[in-house]
């Protein structure tokens, strides 16, 4: 039996028992490792990976012990490496070089209770056009890290990565994926040459391209990014729309400090910024031609990055987020210019946060939906989002 592997299994199992879901798994593990210095970096990496992998199979096989379930999750997600072979039952070893589908089938045959449909706990609540089976399966792998190459930097970025022998995959002329934990900041100029941005988030750019077509070429569009966080969508909007008068806001002052630093690196120097809780009306006469509302949400389209959510999330939160989103929408829309565009975005896959809010907007405001879509990233190992673009009714 591989002693290291077995020790990591036992340690991960003990942490999983202690984890109660009141904070993200990432913070829980960070705290544990800083209080327990006995683990070297190799141990920390393996134990962390095992904890995350345990949660990837969701609520399957709850009747098994944590260690048994963990081994099954590791077998499905990673397969068996040579030095782990002695830790698994003899009959599993013939599948050591099998692909993901074959490993899933083997486990389904051995444990008929294991079902892909049990990974994501609310399949009946999904937005339209999400391939349920591909979506369920996407939780079994850690999503990739995606970079968006900023306009004009396409050649230099690829050259730098090639010179440093960093493996990468070209998704399109602006988007590449690289292995998680690659130290890109020592090779590329973050925010100037590239931004770290998931593929689905990058694909919301297609909605900004539509907005761009409605304005004359040299027109400087007034844009308000209402829930800007550290400015991912704002930088995307700048790169696509080019000429903008940009205003950004968020409820969290600290995240806006990150935005300021990011904007500096991105060479965005002229913008208005303010802290605002948009669940309450804000007194302002200012009007914007484009309002981007990338609303706070369940984040269910990103749960492959936080797979513990599959086990700890409770359905009642969906409606709480829907109510918050409706308040935020209601406090933003009045600031739309008479010829204006409203872009609603979530990183959720729940119909209640997505299509149901499109209906809410159309029923309560003088806005017409031009385009709405679930932006799925599972085929490329990325997140999933939803976006809907509205225009004012004439
Ligand atoms: C999905 S994130 C936005 C991501 C960002 N647009 C980007 O592209 O990186 C949602 C943001 O909404 C902010 N938020 C949450 N509640 C809010 C409220 N009541 N008023 C304004 N912003 C809020 C959060 O602080 C968070 O930064």
What report would you give on this structure?
- It is a single chain.
- This protein has helices spanning 3-18, 25-35, 41-56, 66-78, 100-110, 132-138, 154-163, 199-203, 205-213, 232-241, 253-265, 309-312, 316-332, 355-364, and strands at 145-149, 168-172, 175-178, 194-196, 221-225, 244-250, 271-275, 288-294, 336-346, 367-375, 385-392.
- It is α/β, with parallel strands linked by helices and 394 residues long.
- It has 3 domains: 3-118; 145-196, no CATH class; 200-392, Rossmann fold.
- A 7-stranded mixed sheet has the order 7-6-5-8-9-11-10, with helices on both faces. Strands 2-3-1-4 form a 4-stranded antiparallel sheet, covered by helices on one side.
- The mean pLDDT is 96.
- Bound molecules: S-adenosylmethionine.
- Residues 227-230, 232-233, 250-252, 255, 276-279, 294, 296, 328, 347 line the site of S-adenosylmethionine.
- Keywords: Methyltransferase, RNA-binding, S-adenosyl-L-methionine, Transferase.
- GO terms for molecular function: RNA binding; RNA methyltransferase activity.
- Residues 114-394 form the SAM-dependent MTase RsmB/NOP-type domain.
- InterPro entries: MeTrfase_RsmB-F_NOP2_cat, MeTrfase_RsmB-F_NOP2_dom, RCMT, SAM-dependent_MTases_sf.
| Main beta sheet | 7 strands, mixed
What is the 3D shape?
globular
Indicate the low-confidence ranges by residue numbers.
none
Q: How many DSSP H or I helices?
A: 14
CATH superfamily of the largest domain: Vaccinia Virus protein VP39
Distance between the termini: 73 Å
**Which structural class do the helices and strands define?**
alpha/beta
Which topology of the largest domain does CATH recognise? Rossmann fold
Task: Please report the first level of CATH classification, the CATH class of the largest domain.
Answer: Alpha Beta
Instruction: Summarize the amount of helix as a percent range.
Output: 25-40%
Q: Hey, roughly how much beta strand do the residues contain? A: 15-25%
- Write down the overall mean pLDDT: 96
What oligomeric arrangement do these chains adopt? Answer: single chain
Q: What ligands are attached or bound here?
A: S-adenosylmethionine
Tell me the Rg in angstroms. 23 Å
CATH second-level architecture of the largest domain: 3-Layer(aba) Sandwich
Largest sheet, spatial ordering of strands: 7-6-5-8-9-11-10
Tally the beta strands. 11
Order of helices and strands: HHHHHHEHEEEHHEHEHEEHHEHEE
What is the domain total for the residues?
3
InterPro entries: MeTrfase_RsmB-F_NOP2_cat (IPR049560), MeTrfase_RsmB-F_NOP2_dom (IPR001678), RCMT (IPR023267), SAM-dependent_MTases_sf (IPR029063)
Keywords: Methyltransferase, RNA-binding, S-adenosyl-L-methionine, Transferase
Protein name: Fmu (Sun) domain-containing protein
Family: Belongs to the class I-like SAM-binding methyltransferase superfamily. RsmB/NOP family.
